[in-house]
Design a protein that fits this description.
Number of helices: 3
Shape: globular
Strand order of the largest sheet: 1-2
Distance between the termini: 45 Å
Structural class: alpha+beta
Number of domains: 1
Strand content: 5-15%
Largest sheet: 2 strands, antiparallel
Number of strands: 4
Helix content: 25-40%
Amino acid sequence: MAKSNRGRSVWKMENRSRGICPICRATRVKLLYTKNKSDRTQIKVCKKCSNADAGKIEAAIDTSKVAYRRKHRRAFDLQYNSGK
């Protein structure tokens, strides 16, 4: 494969396949791996969480409506990481 074509499919995905990982809540990471929850919904996770156990997958949050830019980071941290 030519170097100019490597990763071309990622560039065609929505947001270039980047977002917030619903398991580890890392921001602006590539969400390339699909995991299934027990209710048969699919979530996209990062490489680090691709081998997560079923308990962590079930505890995943919905990050589809969450902004992950720097100016929204403080509100995100207060909302989701306050229990840690």
